[in-house]
Each structure stands twice: as C-alpha cells, then as structure tokens.
Design goal:
The protein has helices at residues 9-43, 49-76, 84-109, 115-135, 140-159, 164-234, 244-261, 275-282, 284-301, 326-343, 372-386; strands at residues 265-272, 308-313, 316-322, 355-362. It is an alpha+beta fold. It folds into 2 domains: 9-208; 244-386, 2-Layer Sandwich (Alpha-Beta Plaits). The protein has a 4-stranded antiparallel β-sheet, sandwiched between helices. A hairpin with a 2-residue loop joins strand 2 (308-313) and strand 3. Helix 4 runs parallel beside helix 6. The longest helix is centred in the middle third of the chain and has 71 residues, at 164-234. Mean pLDDT is 85; it is low at 1-7.
Length: 393
C-alpha cells in the first residue's frame, strides 16, 4: 500500500489486510469467470440452455461488477477514507455474492446431470473454492463464508438425496470442506502474521526515522553551538573583532604560508593615545565605547579576505597583512590614523582622540620566528609614541 505510514499499528494492519484482499481479487475474479465458462461449456448439452445461460449471465455480471469495483477501490484507495470494518464488510458482501451464485449451481443443475457430471461439477466448484480460499486468506471470516456458501448447497443436495453415491459425495464434500477450512485457516494465519510483521517493521522503521531526525536536529544544534563557542573563543567580547588567541593562530598560519611562497608579511600595531587618561576622566563605559568605534574604523580599512584585525590587549590593536609590502602596510596604517583623527571621537569639542601605529614587514625564512615581525612592529610603535604620538612609523 502506497499510503503514507502512520504509527497506528492496529489500523495499519487492518488497512493492509483489506488492500491485500482487493489486490488478490484482481486474479481471483478472472479465475472465477474462467471456471464459470468451463462449467457452461460442459453442461450446455445437459442443462436447459435458458437455465444455465441465465446463471452464467448472473455470475458474469456479478464478477465484472466486482472486478470494476476492485479496480476503482485500488486506484483511489477509498478504503482509507472509511472505517476498516466498513471496507471489509463491503468486500465480504461482494465475494459472498459470487460464492452464493456458485452454490446455487448445484440446486439448479443437479436434477439434470448424472453422477459423472455431478462429480465434474463438484471438481470445478472445489477448484473455485480452493482458489477463493487462497485469495481470501487475509480474512478468515471472508474465507470461511466463501467456501461454505459454495459447498453447503452441494452437501445438502447430496446427503438428503438418499442415493448411496450422492450421500458418499456429500460426505466427501463435508470432509473436503473441513480440510479446506483448516488449511485455509492455517494459511490465513501465515498471511496475517506476515502482514503484521511487515507492519511492525514499518513501525520500527518509522521510530528509527524519528530518532534519526531527532539525532540530526541535535547534531545541527550541536554544530551551531560548537560554531558559536568557537566564535566566542576566537573573538573579543567587547569589540567583536578577533581576540589575541585568534591573532596568534592566524599569525602562525599566515607566516608559514608566506614562508612557503616567499611572500612578505606585514604587521601593524596600533595604540590609542592617552587612553588611560580618557578612561579615568569619562569612565569605563565611555572607554569601552571608544574602543568599539576605533576597532570598527580599523576593520573598514583592512578589507581583504586574508587580512586580520584583532584586539592585542587593552587599548592596543594589531593588523596582520599577508603578501603586503611595507609601503602598502604603511599606507593602510596612515589611512586608519587619519580616519580616527577626522572622526573627532573625543568626548567634547576641546579634545581629539588619536592613534599611533608601528609598521613592520618581513619576508619569512627558516632562521626567523613569526613573532619577530610583531616585535619589530612594537619597536616602531614605541618610536611613534616617543615622537609625539598621532603618527605612523
């Protein structure tokens, strides 16, 4: 059944049984028509043609109508839209009608046939009953009704006839009916157990899919949490730019990359002039706000994907520029200094906030350490501050 799986195991088992009954009928109904045609041909010369023809037309019409309804139900899966007991009841009515017409053949034709033809009728009816019993195996109730409606008229006719041969045939029909019911019951148990097991597997699959979906969601949340924590450990909580740890990692990585390719690497150390005095005069909140504004200005100047702007510590910032010449680094530092100066970040109009910058550039080799370029930039920053601040060296 192609309907979407529902975790309601009991209902699913019932729907699968009904679906299997209808699906089996696609083969069982044509077989019934074939057996009816065979009986028509064999008895045409023994039974008045109007009697057997009416019987054949009735069973053919009922079978074709039943086949039409079966195809319609399977195409629309209409049994899913109604209680499963109603869908099963409608099916049993259709199969029982066919069986009753078959049973009526004994009442209609027996008086016109001899022992050989009666035995032939029972043989064809037995084949029909066996085929129907197999196709109706998903429902024990439908199965028992079908075989009983076929055989009971034959049993009554033969046992009550008083004829020794007919009585024997009647007793054999009783025995065959009992065996057919027992075998059909066992086969029905196997079919229903198989359907139940299949549905149980679907329930386990559904449960596994739910758990996998939950696990995938948990993994996504865990990944987001991990990324957030990683970002938190590599970013400065005040300014939002990279922190000292991120700077160390990036410096080592970019130094090694420039070492392999023999590119220059530049480092700019930036210090906010007279920041301690500003912080003491206006408080830590204003001091933090000032650092945020300056970090933003620096970030707008170093815009290449490989450039790194980080908070080095306190009021100091550092910029790492891979594959950048000394002149390029000086130009970037000078643009940054002028941008800070021009924005007039002071607390009042009588005060200007400025920065000092030290720039160093090296082409790495195996005799040097990555922090050598930082030390040189620090020396240049010291020189800038001793030269009067608000300058780049």
């Amino acid at each position: 059944m192609d309907a979407e799986y529902s975790p309601n195991l009991e209902n699913q088992s019932e729907y699968k049984r009904i679906h299997q009954l209808y699906a089996n009928s696609l083969k069982a109904v044509p077989a019934t028509i074939l057996n009816s045609s065979l009986l028509l041909v064999l008895l045409w010369t023994k039974v008045p043609w109007e009697i057997i023809l009416v019987w054949f037309v009735v069973i053919l019409s009922a079978s074709l109508y039943r086949l039409h309804k079966v195809k319609q139900v399977l195409r629309t899966s209409s049994y899913l839209d109604k209680p499963h007991k109603l869908g099963l009841r409608q099916f049993i009515i259709g199969s029982s009608t066919t069986a009753a017409i078959w049973g009526a053949s004994f009442l209609l034709f027996s008086i016109y046939t001899d022992e050989a033809y009666s035995l032939l009728m029972i043989w064809i009816a037995s084949a029909t009953a066996m085929g129907g019993s197999m196709s109706l195996s998903p429902s024990k109730y439908a199965q028992k009704i079908f075989v009983c409606l076929i055989f009971i008229p034959a049993i009554i006719m033969n046992v009550l006839s008083g004829n020794e041969f007919n009585v024997t045939m009647g007793l054999l029909c009783i025995l065959f009916l009992a065996v057919l019911i027992i075998l059909g019951n066992n086969f029905s148990n196997l079919v229903n157990d198989s359907l139940h097991l299949e549905n149980k597997n679907q329930e386990l699959l559904y449960s596994l899919q739910q758990k996998n979906a939950h696990l995938e969601q948990s993994n996504q949340e865990l990944t987001k949490t991990k990324e957030f924590l990683t970002e938190q450990t590599l970013s400065d909580p005040l300014t939002g730019i990279a922190n000292r740890r991120s700077f160390d990692n990036t410096l080592i990585r970019e130094w090694n990359r420039c070492l392999r390719r023999q590119y220059p690497i530049s480092c700019i150390l930036i210090d906010v002039d007279h920041f301690k005095k500003y912080n003491d005069n206006y408080g830590h909140q204003q001091g933090d706000l000032l650092l945020q504004k300056i970090s933003y200005i620096i970030s707008t100047q170093a815009t290449r994907a490989e450039d790194l702007v980080a908070r080095y510590g306190g009021e100091e910032f550092v910029v790492v520029l891979s594959n950048a010449s000394h002149d390029d680094a000086v130009m970037l530092a000078e643009r940054t200094r002028k941008a800070v100066e021009e924005l007039d970040l002071g607390h009042d109009s009588s005060e200007h906030i400025t920065i000092s910058a030290g720039v160093a550039t090296m082409t790495p080799d195996n005799t040097q350490d990555c922090y050598d370029v930082v030390h040189k930039a620090d020396e240049k920053l010291y020189e800038a501050k001793n030269s009067g601040r608000n300058r780049t060296c």
